[in-house]
Every structure is written in C-alpha cells, then in structure tokens.
Amino acid sequence: MGRVGGTHTSGGVPGIGLAKGxxxxxxxxxxxxxxxxxxxxxxxLPPRSRGVIALLEENCTVCMLCARECPDWCIYIDxxxxxxxxxxxxxxxxxxxxxxFAIDFALCMYCSICIEVCPFDALFWSPEFxxxxxxxxxxxxxxxxxxxxMWTVPPPPAHDSRAERPKELSAAExxxxxxxxxxxG
Amino acid sequence: xxxxxxxxxxxGTISRVAPKPIKFVLNWGRRYSLWVFNFGLACCAxxxxxxxxxxxxxxxxxxxxxxxxxxxxxxxxVSGTVTDKMAPAVKRLYEQMPEPxxxxxxxxxxxxxxxxWDSYCVTKGVDQLVPVDVYVPGCxxxxxxxxxxxxxxxxxxxxxxxxxxxxxxxxxxVAQPQAESRPPSPAVLRRxxxxxxxPTSADRPEDPPEASPENPPExxxxxxxxxxxxxxGQRPDAAPRPGPLPPPNSVRGPADPSEPNLxxx
Lengths: 185, 265
Prior knowledge:
heterodimer; A: alpha+beta; Alpha-Beta Plaits; three-stranded antiparallel beta sheet; B: alpha/beta; globular
C-alpha cells in the first residue's frame, strides 16, 4: 500500500490523496447502489439464459441424438420398442417408448448442443438456476423433474422489428398459396 | 525449533451437548458469519469473485470474503477444476480449518469433474477429498446460483446439530435416502442397462427355459425372459459393471471420506 495522502507522488500538495479519495466517496454517495437484492428480488436475466434444461417428453422420439452429441455424456436415456398393430392389417409397426430420461446437471457443461440437435423440439432452456443440492445424486434430474422445468420455459423472445421473417413462416405461407399441391407424405 | 503438534482444531464437547436454545443461538451465529475461503482453481473463481463484488455482494448474507487463511475460515468454496496435483493441497487446507467447517462445491468441475471427467489427471469431484455440504450446478454457475447455494447452506446450518455432525457415532453427515423424493439411488445409477418391461412376464411361469410356442408374435425370439429386477442374476461378473458406455456416475467413487485417501499418506 502507498502512503496515506501520497504527498510525495502527486506534486507535493499535502492532502491531495485524501481529497481524491473523498471525491470518489462523494461521487458515489449520490448514486444509486448497483447491488442486486437477490434473495428478495429475482434477478433480471437476459433472454435465452441457460439455467436448466427442460424436457417436453411428449415430443421425444428416443432418437438418442442428444445423448450421442452431448460432449459430457451427461444424458441418460433408456427406451424399449413396442409393437403397435397396424390400423388396416399388415405388419405391426414398432414404436420407441421412453423409459428413462435423465440429465446429470452436476456434469452438464451447458453447451446447448442437445437442444440444438433435437430434431423434434423436445429440449428447451429454462432460466431457472436455483437447484443447488445437498447431495450430488439429486443433481441428476429424472424425467418427471425435467418435465416440471418445462413450465418455467419462457416464450421465445420476439424478433427485432426489422429482422428478416422466419423462414418457417414464409415456407408455410408459400405452401398454402400454391394451388394443386396437396399434403404429401 | 521442534515441531509442535497442535492437533486438529475440533469442536468443544460443550457445544455438542448444549441444550436446544443454546444450539439455536450458536447456529444462528454461525449461519450469518461465514468467513469464506475461496479455493479458486479455474474459471468458476471468476464467478465467485463477481459474487463477492458490489453487484451481488454476498456480505449481505453474512458471508465475509478475504479470510486471512484457512485457519480463520468457516466456509470453503471450491470453485474450479480440482486436479490430482492440487488435491493434496485441497485436503490439507481443509484440514486446517477450525471445525464447524463447511464446503460448497461450485461448478461442474468441482462437483464431479465436469467436462474433464474423462481426464487422467482431474479429480472426479472434490467430494472425493473432503465432505461437501452444498453442490452448486453450472458451468459456470451464475453468481445468483452461488447466493442460492449459500442460502441452502444457511438453512442447513440452522437445522443442524453439531453432536450429530461431529459425534463419534456418525462422523460424517450421511444424507438419508428417501425413496419417494429421490428416484436415482446409487444402485440405480450404477446399474446396467435397464430392461424393458415385459408385458407377459406376469402370467408366465417363473423360469421358462425357452420361449414357449404360445408366446405372442410381437415378442421376437430372444433371450430367456427375466423380470427386470433380476437382471443382476444372469452373470455374476457382469452385474456390477455399467453398460457399454460407462456413465460418469460409475466412474467416480462414492463420497466416503472413510475410504483410504490415495493422495496423502
């Protein structure tokens, strides 16, 4: 630490260091505090905050893409196939049924790769971050808990006012306006 | 000068057998004056520092940073990747703390190794070295997540009894597993791949050696059917092993400090 007052380093005026320090005090005394009162007020999180991953298990088709692409291998999926009889005879169709879907949030690196690769939009980011636990095994969220996080997923933020239209909308409207093209398989 | 062995600082007997109002007051005092010792090892330490600064300011919660050393600290926040080379230092500095001491594991790396769980030189979680009270998930967690972890720790301190925490019967607080509220038990996490529920196993006899001809056609010929619980009985050597991809929960050992420590003599 330097000398109190700093008389030798700032031009020889005695007490200039003290005056500078008091000036900082006076300047900040009139401003509002920047401290967020977290447990009393919830913080204003930026859009698309990565808090916890929610699972919409109705959309999951057990394609295992998320578990395969996860850099940490922190997604556990168990499934089995069920045979569904075909509606008008024929070969019975097989269908994947999800047995277990768990994400180990002690291990997850929040890279969002699983959410991006999910082809059926079954995974979403939720901004919730309050799930510190006493036991590390509780950080592995099973499918019911992941489904509960789904209620906290915010709607996607609106586009900018002059942004390009979403391609999905244009494609859907173009397909509607085109005559003579029925729904194809 | 000769070496003076002072022994480990321990909680006095009187505070263990103190009556309940005294314990309440003691816990109240411990809860709101946690001198914190930042074991910052990697990038999560930046979030810890952000939490200690004026924006989040955990002195509001009674957590006082800048303890002069571990001997003056009550709470150790391990934030960052614990490497095997750093592990003896973590253990040693934890042992220097006086005894109502708490550990928060902050971030994925100190929880269980994080992205480096496959590395040869990274400790798979600081709970292999020291008992951890609160695990804060994130990579890195938000500063508010650390505040939430501190709040959880304060709730734990408020409800604890040092006689149970440091008593001779159970030296380490063991979380009681509740089967209802916590589905993944360690046995579940380390089991081999789950077998699909077999719809016809109820009306089938116990051990049919081969598929009987009255099997329904949606069951293709497969291995001798077993109920899903008895999958450990098929091969005794294959049972404790995980599946073909070892999940990291099976890689890391249990957080049991009574295990022999590999890092310290």
